[in-house]
Every structure is written in structure tokens, then in C-alpha cells.
Amino acid sequence: MFFFDNGLDSKRTIGIRDKQILYRNSKGRCQNPGCNKKIEFDEMQVGHKTAWSKGGSTTLRNSVCICYRCNKLQGTDSWATFMKKQGIKDPKTDMKATLETLTITQLKLLAGKHHIRVTGQVVETMFDSHRKAPTKRQYINKLSGVVTNADLHSVSEKSKKKLPKTTKRLIPTKKRKKEKPMWDTLF
Ligand SMILES: [Zn+2]
After folding, report:
1. Which domain holds residue 117?
2. Are residues 35 and 65 in the same domain?
3. Is residue 25 part of a domain?
4. 170: Cα separation from own chain's centroid
5. What is the CB-side half-sphere exposure of residue 97 using CA atoms within 13 A?
6. What distance in angstroms lies between residue 141's CA and the mean position of ligand 1's atoms?
């Protein structure tokens, strides 16, 4: 039949070599973070990040190793939509939101830690050109894929440690000590 002989079906999945690479890269587990089930090579389903029916290519890059159940669950949704429906957040966007809460000094500290140079925009004037100081957004864009949760912890710890020092100074401990001897002399 004409309709079945369009050759498209043979392009729907990756070749055996790519399947083996995909299986090895996923360490034999379903790549849906909400599942992570151990699967045999024969059980492996080749999922697509962008569905084949929606123009997703049949390449290793667009493929995910998933179990039968997850493949059914994903249906024709893209991988991103599939993650969203399960309430699984993309770690990179999550990190951007966290970095947003930091001060520019803390962001500078993180950039320094990872040897990342963040440069501001070049401003051209009539006489010269100079660089503006980098904005918070420029820092966040460069750091979001690099910074780990441990880094964030160390930065917040550093700012926490500074706090007790200043609060201690506000408590007049010396005055109280001086008052005691006065009572002693009265009785
Ligand atoms: Zn699964």
C-alpha cells in the first residue's frame, strides 16, 4: 500500500549502536527522575525529548532511555512537559531563582570561586569606550549552570557568621558587670 510504504517508520527509532550507547549512558536505568527504575536492555524504550510526531529528530541527543510505563505516560508530550506534569523542576531554572535572592557581593564571591569573569557592557562615548559594571542578571546567567547547592550553602554561611558579631556589640555586657560591685558595697 502506498501510505504504509513511505519509509517514515524506519526512521522512528535510533539504530542499534545508538541504543547501546543510550543504555550505557543511562546506566541501565529509566531516565525519568520520578522513576529511575532499573531496566534490561531488551525492556528499554527509546523516548524522545521532542516527540517524533511533533518534529523531534531521531538522534541520540533527542533520545532518552525510559521504561515501558514511562514511555506510555509521556505519550506525545515533550520531555519538558512530561517533567512539568510530574512536578519535577529543571535544576537550572531553579538555581536561577535561588541566585536571584543573593546580593551582588555574594554573586561576585561565587564567580570568583569558579574563576568566572563577568564583564559588563561596553559603553561607547564620543571620547572613549569603557565597560559598565556587570549587572546582577549577567552574573546569574553565567552562574546558573555552574553553581552547586554546596556553593550556595557556603555563601549563606559566610553572611550568617557576620551577623552574631554585630548583634553582640549591641548588648551592653560591660555595664551590667560594673553594677554588681555597687550592690556588694551597700550590704
Ligand atoms: Zn520509568
Report:
1. 91-160
2. yes
3. yes
4. 40
5. 6
6. 32
Q: Which three cell numbers stand for residue 68?
A: 515501558
DSSP string covering 129-172: EEEPPPPHHHHHHHHTTT--HHHHHHHHHHHHHHHHHHHHHHS-
Query: How close is the Cα of 148 to the center of ligand 1, in Å?
Result: 26
Q: What spacing in Å lies between the alpha carbon of 53 and ligand 1's midpoint?
A: 21
Domain harbouring 54, CATH code: 1.10.30.50
Distance of CA 91 to the CA centre of its chain: 3
- Residue 29 domain flag: yes
Q: How many domains does the chain have?
A: 2
The pTM (predicted TM-score) of the whole model is 0.50
Taking a 5 Å cut-off on Cβ, the residues next to ion ligand 1 are 30, 32, 35, 37, 67, 70
Of the candidates 151, 175, 44, the one whose C-alpha atom is nearest the C-alpha of residue 102 is: 151
pLDDT digits (tens, 9 = 90+) for 20-32: 999 999 999 999 9
Q: Measured between alpha carbons, how far is 147 from 156 in angstroms, rounded to an integer?
A: 13
